[in-house]
């Protein structure tokens, strides 16, 4: 792989062992995927933050970077959710020893220069790349969003490779950075209009399962607001490894593909009933559940507004946790949405998410959520059963 003089210096340790370690990792990655060179990145997003996921080895690695005075070169480097809300962790019932370890991890990231956004929607927290920008993002739901909806270019990075890119300012030039890999290779004709976020996420979940490594081109979808696109991508990226999709007349690159390219793609049709079945398969049949968790991916301001208005004058009869980013939380608080949700008995949480937080000791048996991604992961990460319903059905059932 061709390296510039500057990149060679990084690799040879002229700027310290920390930087050399990161460059070595990226060179190995580039060689595996036969990248011809490195390119500069304008933005990074780093996952692998919760102590529950990275444990002592991850903490030690981060501390070693911090001790070697390694700093990120890429100013726009944001962080995925951690295992706790930094202010409300007691209300989440988290043990103090976990909180202490999680705090050490966050401190180490801060010393390395990463912005502690702690959200999987960094594009709502000031990290919003432009079309065509090369970026290095991890977190599958964020990666598919930045590629598909924003039109920037990233591979599906691991937490470590995204951090290495943030530190070196480089990523190997391969995969979804190249024009030829951004072409759709399956054309999905959607024969219904999704009517809520569960149908959008369920459509993604179904297509990701059938075509786990493809670039789908959706037609017939009509209007999709950005929350539905977020759910569509999260579904595609959780049942499969889909990292890029296009929606006819909507996403930025869809117009680039002419009739010939689409004619060569495999064809597939999907009906509302197929999606309904996919969602039912993810979901427990019994109606009883102990908690409602919303906000996977993190809720936007509009989604918080809808929850707040729905709960006006109501009281919830079960645990209701709504997850969002701190930047959205601050706005939502200012507009009174957080107050309305918490007055009804819910809790609005930031910095964390239902999957990476250690909630397995809360004694929950079944959780109701509007997220197909959460439904996919929660049974294994938090040992709970899951029921999937639209946000309003979830709220109606407990208020
Ligand atoms: Fe975000 Fe956690 Fe879901 S990182 S996409 S809320 S699993």
Account of the 3D structure:
By secondary structure, this protein is α/β, with parallel strands linked by helices. The protein has three domains: about 5-180, Aconitase, domain 3 (2-Layer Sandwich); about 185-280, no CATH class; about 285-399, Aconitase, domain 3 (2-Layer Sandwich). Helices cover about 40% and strands about 15% of the residues. The strands form four sheets. Strands 13-12-11-14-15 form a five-stranded parallel beta sheet, with helices on both faces. α5 (about 140-150) links the parallel β4 and β5 (about 155). α2 crosses α6 and α8 packs across α14. It is globular and about 65 Å long. The chain starts with a helix and ends with a helix. The mean pLDDT is about 95. The structure holds FE3-S4 cluster. FE3-S4 cluster binds near residues 80, 139, 298, 323 and 356.
> What do we call the CATH topology of the largest domain?
Aconitase, domain 3
- Rounded radius of gyration (Å): 21 Å
| Unreliable spans | none
The figure for the number of domains is 3
Distance between the termini: 59 Å
Overall 3D shape:
globular
CATH architecture of the largest domain: 2-Layer Sandwich
Number of extended strands: 15
- The overall average pLDDT, rounded, is 96
């Amino acid at each position: 792989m061709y390296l510039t003089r500057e990149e060679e210096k990084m690799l040879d340790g002229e700027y310290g062992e920390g930087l050399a370690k990161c460059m070595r990792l990226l060179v190995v990655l580039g060689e595996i995927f036969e990248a011809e060179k490195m390119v500069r990145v304008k933005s990074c997003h780093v996952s692998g933050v919760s102590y529950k996921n990275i444990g002592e080895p991850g903490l030690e690695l981060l501390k070693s970077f911090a001790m070697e005075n390694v700093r990120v070169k890429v100013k726009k480097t944001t962080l995925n959710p951690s295992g706790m809300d930094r202010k409300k962790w007691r209300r989440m019932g988290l043990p103090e020893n976990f909180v202490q370890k999680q705090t050490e991890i966050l401190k180490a990231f801060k010393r390395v220069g990463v912005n502690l956004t702690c959200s999987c929607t960094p594009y709502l927290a000031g990290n919003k790349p432009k079309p065509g920008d090369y970026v290095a993002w991890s977190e599958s739901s964020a990666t598919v969003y930045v590629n598909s909806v924003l039109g920037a270019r990233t591979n599906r990075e691991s937490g470590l490779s995204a951090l290495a890119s943030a530190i070196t300012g480089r990523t190997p030039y391969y995969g979804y950075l190249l024009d030829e890999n951004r072409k759709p290779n399956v054309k999905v004709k959607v024969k219904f209009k999704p009517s809520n976020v569960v149908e959008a996420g369920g459509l993604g979940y179904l297509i990701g399962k059938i075509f786990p490594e493809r670039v789908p081109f959706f037609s017939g979808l009509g209007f999709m607001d950005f929350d539905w696109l977020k759910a569509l991508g999260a579904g595609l990226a959780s049942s499969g490894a889909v990292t890029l999709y296009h929606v006819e007349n909507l996403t930025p690159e869809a117009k680039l593909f002419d009739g010939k390219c689409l004619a060569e793609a495999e064809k597939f049709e999907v009906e509302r009933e197929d999606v309904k079945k996919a969602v039912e398969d993810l979901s427990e049949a019994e109606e009883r559940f102990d908690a409602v968790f919303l906000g996977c991916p993190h809720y936007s301001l509009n989604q918080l507004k809808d929850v707040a208005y729905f709960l006006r004058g109501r009281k919830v009869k079960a645990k209701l946790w709504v997850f969002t980013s701190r930047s959205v939380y601050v706005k939502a608080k200012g507009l009174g949405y957080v107050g309305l949700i918490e007055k009804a008995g819910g809790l609005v949480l930031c910095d964390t998410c239902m999957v990476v937080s250690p909630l397995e000791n809360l004694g929950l048996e079944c959780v109701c959520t509007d997220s197909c991604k959460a439904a996919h992961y929660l049974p294994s990460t938090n040992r709970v059963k899951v029921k999937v319903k639209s946000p309003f059905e979830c709220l109606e059932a407990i208020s």
